[in-house]
Amino acid sequence: MSTARSHTVPQHVAIIMDGNGRWANKRGLPRTLGHKKGVEAVREAVRIAGDLGIDYLTLFAFSSENWRRPEAEVNDLMGLLKVFIRRDLAELHRKNVRIRIIGDRVNLRGDILPLLEEAEETTTRNTGITLVIAFNYGARDEITRAVQALAVDVAAGRLAPEDITAQRVASRLDTAGIPDPDLVIRTSGEERLSNFLLWQAAYAELVFVPEFWPDFDRDVFLRALDVYARRDRRFGGVTSAPTLAVGS
Ligand code: IPE
Ligand code: IPE
Ligand code: MG
């Protein structure tokens, strides 16, 4: 299904899907309808990313801080995740999509965890785009859990403190084995990371678009990719742009 990725298309795009509530508010609708419409935008985003040959698409679906929302809204969001996986898993599997879930799984509701595990297990051998769903995810929580796991190894004498390298820390994060995002897009005009991929996005290009998440479509995606393609990524070095021949 996917075409070869052109060199200006990022290998890994991560999206902070923001603005469902404001999308609904603007129309005098309950926030829950904004979330519902947001699921359609998720389907669209996965489709477009696959068509463009993007290898990894990470979507921030529910943060470890989103539990602070009213119980009814939290329940709506949990319900939508369940509906999404139940309705879309077969289709995603058919399209060769591999699903990975990042975030804390401990204390997740008993009706959610098995679904997430089923989604991962069913698609584990697929070779198309990897869809990473960040659910109950917070970067500080993720890094803290990685540090705790390393501390256990040190305390047990399996690991010397000086062997804790950046690479080893990365290998204990939920994203182990997934390349760092090249591009992080946030919708709705907010310009912050809200505890998303703080370690992995160290050198990601950040693109903020004004559209609310339910309005995310091919045009918005392509515009963000266009901004990305014109950025000069230096990774602390000097410009990678080819130098012009002088005097020719
Ligand atoms: C994003 O939309 C969805 C989640 C955070 C789960 P919001 O619900 O944050 O919408 P706004 O930001 O209030 O408009
Ligand atoms: C970030 O959006 C979390 C998700 C998109 C899942 P929020 O709407 O929760 O972030 P803040 O509260 O505006 O920073
Ligand atoms: Mg928001």
TrEMBL record:
One protein family per Pfam: Prenyltransf
Comment on bound cofactor: Binds 2 magnesium ions per subunit.
Keyword annotations from UniProtKB, A to Z: Magnesium, Metal-binding, Transferase
Residues the record lists as binding substrate: 19-23, 31, 35, 63-65, 67, 69, 186, 192-194
Catalytic residue positions: 18, 66 (proton acceptor)
Superkingdom of this protein's organism: Bacteria
Cofactor: Mg(2+)
Any one biological process term the GO annotation gives: polyprenol biosynthetic process
GO cellular component: cytosol
Binding sites annotated in the UniProt record for Mg(2+): 18, 205
CDD domains associated with the record: Cis_IPPS
Record keyword Magnesium present: yes
Gene3D superfamilies named in the record: Decaprenyl diphosphate synthase-like
Enzyme class of the recorded protein, top EC level: transferase
InterPro entries in the record: UPP_synth-like, UPP_synth-like_CS, UPP_synth-like_sf
Assembly description: Homodimer.
Function description: Catalyzes the condensation of isopentenyl diphosphate (IPP) with allylic pyrophosphates generating different type of terpenoids.
The protein, known as: Isoprenyl transferase
